[in-house]
Amino acid sequence: GESIPVFAQTDHAQLGLALNSKEFFVLKAHGTIERPKTIVLTDKDYATLIHNSPGYRTFLKALFLDRTVLFLGFGLNDPELRLLLEELREIFEGHTPSHYALLDVSGTTDTEQKNFESHYGVRIIPYLPSATDHPEVIEFLQEIIAKLPKHILAHTLTRGLTPAKNVLESDSHYKWVMNTE
Fold it and tell me: With 60 as the cut, is the pLDDT of residue 60 above it?
């Protein structure tokens, strides 16, 4: 029954508040179908977002400097992300938190993966999908959950995962995500 805040990248004031909040929220980083003007698809859209949205850019910088991020459903060619991570690595001379990406490596070379880690600070967790629905992603997440200490898992389930599931189940655009427990 909890209401979970959902933001798009254009919700500058709300993103500022979310930075200071320890509560769960959903960020639709590339926009939302409910507000078509927020959708980011083309290289020009990415450039406009990065150069004309200092609030969103500041939010992402703070997020990437304060936390370790695990990327899922991620490709190495996201220009917005590459530009931001490269800038942070440059400013702080490589002393930024490590981030991780569970990545289908069937379309990348070892050199591209190593370069991504050295240039952007994102360590690749490689996998090759055995089926089109990428069951390895679910297995990976189940392994993480199994290894979490019980007190962290209990807190996460009550404060994050359960509300996230409620948001995803109520949003028809994300129902495909919830096809498995």
Answer: yes
Interatomic CA distance for residues 5 and 167, integer angstroms: 9
pTM for this entry = 0.66
What is the tens place of the pLDDT at every residue in 126-158?
A: 999 999 989 998 898 888 777 766 655 555 555
